[in-house]
Amino acid sequence: MENIRTPKVEHVRLIDRTNPRRCSVGTLYLSSTHSIFVENTEARRETWVLHSLVSSVERPPVSPSGNPLVIRCKNFQVFQLLIPQEKDCLDVQASLSRLSRPERYGELSCFSFNPNLNKEARDEAWSFIDLRGDYVRMGIPSNLWYITAANSEYRVCDTYPSDLYVPKSATPSVIVGSAKFRSRGRFPVLSYYHRDNSASICRSSQPLSGFSARSTEDEQMIQAIMKSNPASEFMYVVDTRPKLNAMANRAAGKGYENEDHYTNIKLQFIGIENIHVMRNSQQKIIDVGQVRSPSMGDFLWGLENSGWLKHIKAVMDAGVFIARAVAEEGISVLVHCSDGWDRTAQACSVASILLDPYYRTLKGFMVLIEKDWVAFGHKFSHRYGHLDSDPKEISPVMDQFLECVWQLMEQFPCAFEFNERFLLQLHTYVYSCQYGNFLANSQKERRDLRIQERTHSVWPHLWKDQAEYSNPLYRADHSQTQGVLRPVTTPYCFKFWKAMYNRLDQASAARQSPADCLSAVREETQQLEEELSTHQEVPRGTVHSPTRQENSFSQGEEDGGGAKEDDQSQ
Amino acid sequence: MEFAELIKTPRVDGVVLHRPFLPLVEGTLCLTGHHLILSSRQDNTEELWLLHADIDFIEKRFVGSSGTIIVKCKDLRIIQLDIPGMEECLNIASSIEALSTLDSVSLMYPFFYRPMFEVIEDGWNLFLPEESFKDLESMTDEWRLSEVNRDFSICPSYPPLVVVPKDTDDDTLLKVASFRHGGRFPVLSYYHKKNGMVMMRAGQPLIGPNGRRCKEDEKLINATLRAGKRGYIIDTRATAVAQQAKARGGGFEQEANYPQWRRIHKTIERYSVLQDSLIKLVEACNDQSHSMDRWLSKLEASNWLSHIKEILTTACLAAQCIDREGATVLVHGTEGTDSTLQVTSLAQILLDPSCRTIRGFQALVEREWLQAGHPFQHRCAQSAYSSGKLHGEAPIFLLFLDCTWQILRQFPCSFEFNENFLVLLFEHAYATQFGTFLGNSAAERSATLKLPQKTVSLWSWVNRPQEMEGFVNPLYEPNSLVIWPSVAPQSLQLWEGVFLRWNRSSKCLDEAYEEMVHIIEYNKELQKKVNSLRRQLAQLETEEI
Q1: Which residues on A lie below 8 Å from B500 (Cβ)?
Q2: Which residue has the higher pLDDT, B46 or B436?
Q3: ipTM for the whole complex
């Protein structure tokens, strides 16, 4: 609370971003977790902004109408305020700047957030996603793959999860040897297993090969992975970096696999740029989305100049390459970049989405994020700036993955159980720290922070609102839902994600969304189905026997009531 | 028949056809007077029937003794024919070239086409000006139907009947006609029932370099103003362009002479610029080897979406003046047959819910495009693959359809028709078996070509229930409000249904559409069942009592 210099400012104006001439007058409150704007109207409409979502607080030059304050959020929302007194404006800015940049995890809102769950319910919520269960679903452990205890207590690799799946023939000494030969000990482990043909996707970090170094254990590990796909004679190693970057790493004693040392591998570079390039690119596309009344030329030039869609395409291309290798060629793939927690996570998860319909369901998508991102040590707190730390660590890695999924939804409107709103909500949660799932940078860090005891899990919360997040066009038995997705990645297939980068325009127009209309229709259909089943309880033929009418009518009513209750309890 | 002379080789065997998304077909190629036909003579493979009129451009390639003809169609499809034999290939190519560029309209297919269906409702009689005037009369008595142009002598591009202010007599109209480009004196385009405001359209005033004025013209348009109210003149040209027009005898309304009007200039490009834009856009869409940067830069360089934005913005402006400002609007550009019609017709889609129904949209096309004298024959003679010297070809109507699609996309529940209907109109404007889009004006259509007697109307076919089914938007809920689309660049998209139609499969999108139809139909079916059961129940209850 000591950071709040002024808890309440009156006569503040919240300017309508779509029409700067319009604004609403109200009171601004600063709490320990939120800024809250309450309109001075009958309706007392409230606008809540989490401090942890605030990315910057700017103070443009004073205007005759007051002291402007612009709050930009990490989910690209922008709030523009006019504060009567300069002192208040300065105080609010200083308070928000401090509050939005917590220095310790303990300051984050997930540690104070209390959704009124008892301990049991909280624990149950944390076990909502069962990663071992997902491997079982894929048919693992099997006679080819097993779960190794090598990393229990994070002994071999502190950024990996404790449960790791490796080929049967990978002995502990191979694991340890391979880990020593990989950046940060991130040795090759199983990410996805394609049950249909035994091909797999494994992931790791770059090998410490430099110009000539080699490791017998690492070579054995790769060999073991290839052998775990008995029908294949070689495997791909996908280095998701541009080849030039990978080569430059050799000078630092890192790099990529030497094809002469590893038997039967084919090396493939994809060319996804590094986190710094992506950060700058996203800033440009945010700017494009926030220009007021740009010309079409400005907009398209800005889009091109940002390079954003080019990067999205690169991530998608990586996923497509891997999925094709696995599904069509039946060849296993090892994916890595430098550390194996950014581009590798993107490439593996996009490929998994393409390969496995399960990951395109609501629950499956949660599992995928929990597996390829959370468990495998994607550095959420660094990348999304949860704490006040090195700005050079921040990068929209997850944003790009979510956008790839959105681009896929545009091409395959029936293939996903969830909708765009779900992606946007998830994006907000990744940044906002209301829940503990995306906190810190590895499983070990989260364990040390006792996240599961001190915070709540976001997944059951999202699951509860699944009606809100469901795609009305999804049908589990639809042909588009089944099997492998084969997206087209010609440049014209990639679109500007308006709902993400242009929230401004969206809020203004109460335009119609076909998906929302359809959802409403489906909801109504469901009610009709219920009513129909109630009515149909009326035995046929009763119309002709007046004596039984009353009876069957009331019976129908009762059954209907019963059916409704059943429904609610589900 | 004349055609026989043009067909040097009427048939070739062993021709291989490549089409987008379809497997190769090998078969016999036949040329008839109007069609290029390829048939494998097997029951299960689809035949190709291509109207010569649909062919925009052909390219020949030779490898050894066999040749290839690349046929680029006006609907933007590209097909390839591999023809054995150099001579056959050359003959076929030159025949196609000749047949696809016939000068005489009366040799076009619509004059030979006999419908395979029974015409229940003749499209030629569906949208008569007398009928729509009756509707107007029921709302206001300030307008009259003038026959001053009955023999097309005053304004060759106007229909015989036009709606003008009641107090303006035909003599005045004669004088005004001589002051307006092409004789296009101001006529009523739209009456806004909600507030009684109107939109008129005309050709540019011929003020010339010396600032000529015409009292009758001023009087005519002033007659449409409410007492003490100002009107808006929307000139679709940039100020500089309008200024330059004075040197050529044209120009714009001078403030001094029209003090009750506020003139606003917008910048909708002229047809040659638009044609160039279409060519560039389609070129960009057809090159799949582009990198992302190159694609975006080509898309930008084509300027197509800029044109869309400008046209929509101008239409929104016109609609805003009428609905929000409660003002009368006069729209014109130079001739008043292109950008003017884009603006007046789109403004009506925004303002008038009936234009968003299938019949209403047909009526709009009939009224604001065909009757209003948009020169379809000239504008649609060539499409995106045209090369060489152009003779007034331009995608004016396609831009209108594209703008309509943009609005439809933003208001997916407010239109009774779907995207397929717009694509259909695009196709038929360029090549067709129907007479609707032939000719350049009402005069040509009825007096010279006698289309209503000699050809079948597109509407006669479209409005049959079995055809209509495919064009109905399942999401449609009548929306009586004025709709305001966003014209921000982020809200405007490339019309994939036309421009990427032959470049990427639409299978998944089609499936989604079917799924949507299915969901809605199932809902309706259940509603019906439930309602009938409810009625039965109610009946039983009353019988009880």
Answers
A1: 492
A2: B436
A3: 0.94
